[in-house]
UniProtKB/TrEMBL annotation:
Top-level division of the source organism's lineage: Eukaryota
CDD domains recorded: HAD_BPGM-like
Gene3D superfamilies membership: HAD superfamily/HAD-like, Putative phosphatase, domain 2
Pfam family of the protein (one): HAD_2
Protein name according to UniProt: Uncharacterized protein
TM annotation in the entry: none
Length: 296
């Protein structure tokens, strides 16, 4: 049995007299507010006492459960460059662009133009190229993803996947990978998140779990730090490919490091989720915090 998630995830904000319910958007989310607003009520406390795993929220970055996204992103960027006679970005620059709004990648990472009109046009072309290539792209579940997500669903742990592409595209990718019924919620470009922290906080809100009771599954050191900034816990899924634009990745600040989802146990998730947030969570800075994107 999979957990049921409230359809109107803004309900805690709408019902709070301290919140401005007329201006609800991801940039208004604060972890301190969510940790207060999403505390379980009397009936939920009773339910979580019987089934403690239900109190936890599992937040997955898309690439921790989907294989095949990296190459599709690169091909879409190359198509935009070729169509507009722009210098094709190399792999290092495309690694840096991952997770950024396309407008920022165009202007700052690839340095193709400073003209906002051109930037928006090329950003739209990127979304079109992505959608055009998606039907032919192959996606598979990462090692252990199916078994781990199945276990979480059996324990009624609500799961959400966070992606930088449009919701319809995320649904297609999950279907191709055989994961379409594994997630109760999706955070996608359509939600309007500008940063990864906003995406993680919105994921918490959609799952109706306080950020401090959420565990983020990430594959980049910066994402671990961002999860901690949101008062969530973070499990680093460290693949064999440990490069990041030629930089050595340091996951020492993660709550747990694993080589794949197939190494995880339910007892580990509960132990990590029950920890108190640490005040000294730190991460070596490899690059500025990326914006969340691309848009629809």
């Amino acid at each position: 049995m999979t957990p049921v998630i409230a359809e109107d995830y803004w309900e805690p904000y709408i019902n709070s007299p301290r919140m401005d319910s007329d201006h609800l958007s991801p940039d208004r989310l604060r972890s301190s507010d969510l940790n207060e607003l999403l505390q379980p009520d009397f009936m939920e406390i009773k339910r979580f006492g019987i089934s403690p795993m239900q109190a936890i929220g599992a937040v997955f970055k898309d690439e921790t459960v989907l294989s095949g996204m990296d190459e599709l992103n690169k091909e879409a960027w190359r198509a935009v460059a070729k169509f507009n006679n722009l210098p094709p970005p190399d792999d290092d620059h495309m690694e840096l662009a991952m997770g950024m709004l396309p407008e920022r990648a165009i202007q700052q990472t690839f340095q193709w133009t400073d003209d906002w009109g051109e930037t928006k046009r090329w950003s739209a072309e990127l979304s079109e190229a992505y959608a055009r290539m998606l039907p032919e792209a192959n996606f598979t579940a990462t090692p252990g993803a199916v078994d781990w997500l199945t276990a979480l669903n059996q324990y009624q742990v609500p799961c959400v996947v966070c992606s930088s592409v449009a919701r319809a595209q995320v649904v297609t990718m999950l279907e191709k990978a055989g994961l379409s019924n594994m997630f109760q919620e999706i955070v996608a470009a359509d939600d309007g998140c500008e940063t990864q922290e906003q995406a993680y906080l919105l994921a918490s809100l959609k799952l109706k779990r306080p950020p401090m009771k959420c565990v983020v599954f990430a594959d980049e050191p910066k994402e671990v730090s961002i999860a901690h900034d949101a008062t969530a816990k973070a499990i680093a899924v460290v693949s064999k490919n440990s490069g990041n634009g030629g930089l050595r990745r340091d996951f020492s600040h993660a709550d747990l490091r694993v080589g794949g989802l197939d190494e995880l146990r339910i007892s580990q998730l509960k132990e990590i989720a029950d920890r108190e947030p640490e005040e000294n969570w730190m991460v070596p800075e490899l690059q500025p915090e990326p914006f969340w994107g691309p848009g629809d």
